[in-house]
């Protein structure tokens, strides 16, 4: 299926590795012009070269709203505008509620809430003016069912989800859609670094995943690309779990 986004200008945040990279790869395959970022110039350059398709790269610090805004503005300058924005970024440190100090919350909100807000605010004026745009934010399954030991992430990303759904309602009539994707466990360096690529630790982590395996990052990227497609123009305000069936509630 042709997603109808060849030539569209896509800014994909934190895309030198993992699910951000997989999302950028899927958009490049659809013929989109892509600009990615990383906090490290060497990683960003290497990822852009590997992606091909004329992918451009920037160095950006996505730990707060200033760097997040700078990335979108820089991508728009490189490409002449941003039609597609894939929001992504580094998550907060782990910890349980009763042990995380109050002053740790501001940094978490900067990373996983205010940086999301900043990217969207930087991208949406141009999208609305042109009457077309796609925003897809990579958040977490912890928004639906809070993860143990991730109090900061659960809190900040839940706030981001509320913002995204509110924004979706406000700009839907302008031809701009806003959705989020909530990944479960995928075969990325981060996940295999924690759980391993096989063995009892990984088996325990997959015990509650009906699919019985780690997700394929390429499949994840394909879902992101679809949400950016012409065909997904009537789909907005959704939060899509991509988790092999791990989330089991009715709503």
From TrEMBL:
MF (Gene Ontology): 3-oxoacyl-[acyl-carrier-protein] reductase (NADPH) activity
SUPFAM superfamilies: NAD(P)-binding Rossmann-fold domains (SSF51735)
Keywords assigned: Oxidoreductase
Coiled-coil parts of chain: none
EC code: 1.1.1.100
InterPro entries: NAD(P)-bd_dom_sf, SDR, SDR_fam
Family named by the database record: Belongs to the short-chain dehydrogenases/reductases (SDR) family.
PANTHER family per record: 3-OXOACYL-(ACYL-CARRIER-PROTEIN) REDUCTASE, NADPH-DEPENDENT REDUCTASE BACG
Entry protein name: 3-oxoacyl-(Acyl-carrier-protein) reductase
Annotated source species: Pseudonocardia dioxanivorans (strain ATCC 55486 / DSM 44775 / JCM 13855 / CB1190)
